[in-house]
Amino acid sequence: MNNKRKPLVAIVGRPNVGKSTLFNRIIGWRKAIVEDIPGVTRDRNYADADWSGREFSVVDTGGLDIESDELYPSLIRDQVQIAIEEADLILFLLDAKTGVMPQDVEISNLLRKFTKPVLYVVNKVDHERHEVRAFDFHALGIDRFFTVSALDGRKIDELLDAIVERLPKAESVEETEDTIRVAVIGKPNVGKSTLVNRILGEERLITSPVPGTTRDSIDTLIEKNGRKYLFIDTAGIRRRPKITFSVERYSVLRAIKTIERADIVLFMFDGKEGPTHQDARISELIKDRGKGCIVLLNKWDLVPKEIAEISNIGDIVRNKLKGVDFAPVISISALSGKRVNKVFEYIDSVYENFSRRTPTKTLNKLLDDILKTNPPPIYKGSEVKFYYISQPMTKPPTFVVFTNSLKGIPEGYKRFLENTFREVFPLEGTPIKFIFRARRKG
């Protein structure tokens, strides 16, 4: 299949001109917070849209005040600049009721520094007799405007026609059904980009010792030993109190979205530091999203000898990462390349387990054996029975158990079932799910 990157449309403008209202109007539902207070939207807000059969993404940015030195406006400037740089088309929104403001002039001058196509949109023109208000904006050196009312939806159709007419074709990466999607996640500066560069054998991604260099997820398709892998290098995940800039908050959200896109997550750490409490929370997220996982202890060549010689380091790490206690742990050096070749072996193995389907007959034989030796406890004086088990889904392996008592199965017994299945079947590196459904006797 083709993994397409949708064209991106960025909405920019000074505060309170109606960017979020236009954003909501384009995407067709109320996602952005809309308040008549300047500066409500501080971070970029992304959503997908469709018009006349063309799919594209839209990003709503904070109000841009170029001259202000205050903290939030400076962060918004960063956000807007990133949005402009990554956008394929820019909507510069202006306010018909206020006319040309000094900030409009500054933004107009900023946009001229970019080679991106720009549509100039005059908002709050809610009636034909108000069209004359748009004439003031010719002072910006602009020949053509689109006059709209984002609030009422007036002439939005014409604007959308102009948008899709100017959009480039969606870029695509040739991704087959068997392509393994691998997300590389971890705190900033643990070596994610260095690892992907080592795998590629070239400086394809920007690497830097400065935390936070990688702001966006970057997809890289590679082929090795006849198999395709889509590597997704992500921005570092930090604890919230340490996220200083809005752009880094955006990076965290983007990294979480990347986890959702992946089959296998390479959860990467600095070997000298190991996992933290925040990492443990991320591990729960990986499990909740149902992703395969491999833990990489990077920079192992720099680890003190007393740590490097610990024989059960994998058990210690897994004990700290309860969410992915099923994951294999590998020590590597992305910089020197030590044991990096092992990463592919583990990816292949974990993906096989992640995609594994076990015959129904084999599952029911194991369930019968378990019930004979370790049946579930009595619940409210009644016997809890399991009638049948099947596996309707893979990625991850998901098992449905039919029972006479949904409430009578304690969490401890569910964990016992999972541990037993892991002992019997090759399921290293993948979460497994049990779904219990009610069935009356007979």
Describe this structure in words.
The chain has 442 residues and is of the alpha/beta class. The chain folds into three domains: 2-166, Rossmann fold; 175-354, P-loop containing nucleotide triphosphate hydrolases (Rossmann fold, 3-Layer(aba) Sandwich); 360-438, GMP Synthetase, Chain A, domain 3 (2-Layer Sandwich). 31% of the residues lie in helices and 22% in strands. The protein is built from twelve helices and 17 strands. The chain has helices at residues 19-27, 71-86, 102-111, 156-166, 192-200, 246-261, 277-288, 305-308, 313-320, 340-354, 360-373, 411-424, and strands at 2-5, 8-12, 45-51, 54-60, 89-95, 118-123, 146-147, 171-174, 180-185, 218-224, 227-233, 264-270, 292-298, 329-331, 386-393, 398-403, 433-438. It has a six-stranded mixed β-sheet with strand order 3-4-2-5-6-7, sandwiched between helices. The radius of gyration is 27 Å and the shape is elongated.
Please summarize what this structure is.
The chain is an alpha/beta fold. The protein is 31% helix and 22% strand. The chain has three domains: 2-166, Rossmann fold (3-Layer(aba) Sandwich), CATH 3.40.50; 175-354, 3-Layer(aba) Sandwich (Rossmann fold); 360-438, K homology (KH) domain (GMP Synthetase, Chain A, domain 3).
